[in-house]
Amino acid sequence: MIQLHDLQFEPYLSEKEINEAIDKLAEQLNRDYEGDTPVFLGVLNGAFMFASEIIKRFKGDCEVSFVKLGSYEGTRSTGDVKTLLGLNQSLKGRRVVLIEDIVDTGNTLEEINEILKKEGVADYKVLTLFFKPEAYKKSIKIDYKGMEIPNKFIVGYGLDYDGLGRNLTEVYKRKEQ
Ligand SMILES: O=P(O)(O)OC[C@H]1O[C@H](OP(=O)(O)OP(=O)(O)O)[C@H](O)[C@@H]1O
Ligand code: HPA
């Protein structure tokens, strides 16, 4: 059990389980993007750890870029997704792989979708380590999912509770009261 701020969290996914999911995603990406030079676009802050691991496993040429969006306060989405750092390169005509640590309500994804539509990308795919099907309210297709998880608040592997927990290499879920 760990404590972050006022909440307790219990172990949920081991580093081994997470790495196995990332290995599988990497195999798919290496197959689907063979011979292409995709742009991996990570969504900060949460995706930093996953982005690093998946990009290390990509065998071809690629570019790496980041945007920074935020909408969570504590354990809840405010529904108001703020772009804190936007794109700093043109993605026109490029194949883009959006890297998310988690797709939960889908609010963040919808916001990025609008940004990428305006960019005139050749195509883009959504890659996420974690996906909460019960919470997802949008229709944007999630192309690559590492793991489907129940609608519980998690921390670790880049994900935080009010700033803490991002450095944990395993994932913890909020303890039921
Ligand atoms: O599908 P949603 O409900 O929009 O949730 C997913 C988003 O929430 C988290 O970001 P957050 O806004 O907490 O910012 P952070 O990445 O800096 O922690 C996470 O990193 C995703 O980007
Ligand atoms: O379960 C979660 N944990 C941490 N951050 C998040 N952002 C969306 N869902 C989550």
Q: Which series of helices and strands comes N to C?
A: EEHEHEEEHEEEE
Proportion of β residues? 35-45%
Mean pLDDT: 96
List bound small molecules: 1-O-pyrophosphono-5-O-phosphono-alpha-D-ribofuranose, hypoxanthine
Keywords summarizing the entry:
177 residues; alpha/beta; 4-stranded antiparallel β-sheet; 23% helix; 37% strand; globular; binds hypoxanthine; magnesium; Hxn_phspho_trans; purine salvage; EC 2.4.2.8; Hypoxanthine phosphoribosyltransferase
Architecture blueprint of SSEs:
Blueprint (H helix, E strand, L loop, with lengths): L1 E3 L2 E7 L1 H18 L6 E6 L3 H9 L6 E11 L2 E10 L9 E9 L3 H13 L3 E9 L12 E5 L5 E2 L15 E4 L3
Parallel strand pairs: 3-4, 3-6, 6-7, 7-8
Antiparallel strand pairs: 1-2, 2-10, 4-5, 9-10
Helix pairs in contact: 1-2
Bound molecules: 1-O-pyrophosphono-5-O-phosphono-alpha-D-ribofuranose (PRP) and hypoxanthine (HPA).
Give an overview of the whole structure.
The protein has a domain at 18-27 and 36-71 and 83-147: Rossmann fold, CATH 3.40.50.2020. It has a 6-stranded mixed β-sheet, with helices on both faces. Helix content is 23%, strand content 37%. The relative contact order is 0.22. It has 177 residues and is α/β, with parallel strands linked by helices. The mean pLDDT is 96. It has 3 helices and 10 strands. 1-O-pyrophosphono-5-O-phosphono-alpha-D-ribofuranose binds next to strand 4, strand 6 and helix 3. InterPro entries: HGPRT (IPR050408), Hxn_phspho_trans (IPR005904), PRTase-like (IPR029057), PRTase_dom (IPR000836).
Compose a concise summary of this entry.
The chain is of the alpha/beta class.
